[in-house]
Amino acid sequence: MSAPRIARVAVVGVGWWACRLHLVALKENPDALVVALCDRDRARADEAARIFDVPLAVTDVGAVIDAGVDCAIVATPHDAHWEPAAALLDAGIDVLVEKPMTLDPGQAWDLVARARRTGARLHVGYPFLHSPHVARLRQVLRGGELGTPVLSQGLFATGVHRLLAGDVSAQLEHGGLFASAPSTYSDPLRGGGQMNSQMTHAVAVLLSATGLHPASVSAYSNFSGLRVDLADSLAIEMNDGSVATIATTGSVHSHASRIEEYRFFASDGHACLDTVRGRLEIARGGQALTAEPALTEAEANPEKATSVALVAAAIDPDRTSPLAAPGELGADVVALLAAASESAAAGRPVGAYRPPLHA
What we know:
Elements: E1 7-12, H1 16-28, E2 32-38, H2 42-52, E3 56-58, H3 61-66, E4 71-74, H4 82-90, E5 94-98, H5 105-118, E6 122-125, H6 132-142, E7 149-157, H7 161-164, H8 169-173, H9 183-186, H10 194-210, E8 214-222, E9 231-238, E10 243-249, E11 259-266, E12 269-274, E13 279-284, E14 290-291, H11 297-300, H12 305-315, H13 327-346, E15 350-351
Parallel strand pairs: 1-2, 1-4, 2-3, 4-5, 5-6, 7-10
Antiparallel strand pairs: 7-11, 8-9, 8-15, 9-10, 11-12, 12-13, 13-14
Helix pairs in contact: 4-5, 5-13, 6-10, 10-13
């Protein structure tokens, strides 16, 4: 069957992020036609369909499948990603799952397996991985231009402390159509906390840039009186024997003051990435750092690129182009975060789960 010229797209979960970002991006995309919205809250689905001029609003993902869509975005709360994504993948529909892909590593790898069985393409919502600088890092680091990996570092410090405390009012203050349920970010049983909401981005960048996956992790968490983690520090053993450290906090006063920095050290050079300032510098063989072209904030964190990539893959007649944020990477991120949470609670190193097929 030939690929469609225009992708028929559905969005499952029409909360704050879907309405602020995905539906806006899809309506701007000449290669996409949004044909269905799905949400457990019927009134919210109907309202979003009215505002974004979408013909079908439903509460059951089965109705989305029956609508004959080519691809779908799953933007439900963290703990509700697996069920709709699994149903869509089983139907052979390409899926973009928002981060983190799931909370349970077994469910994450299950989605990867379902996609492989049906040939559907599984994406994860990590916008940083679509930036030119991260693409350049993949070329340099995976291609061996800097030699053998030694140490990777990440610092991701943001201002989401209000969300982690259950205050979602800022989402409406910044023009959101709907606010998230407070429990999405503040309830540990629903995947709340800094690891799942923010550190997940930093882990994705480190794994994507290096092409490595985590073997084990030792972690510490600081709750600062909250029910969920506000700050975390991870020491990671990678599958090739190199090591990585990642630190994160949601306690930065404002979004404008955030810090998002990465360092990659190898046997023949190193690279420094600052996604806030849009800077990437690379040093080879003892030479001084050489700066890559600077990026704007929109280029360094191309939020709309995730849905653009979903649509492009759905209409690609060859369906062979590599994905910037594939399901396998998303599953490795989930496995590391789950192991880190267990490590912080148990006070010991914990292995990151990877099924034998992917080990």
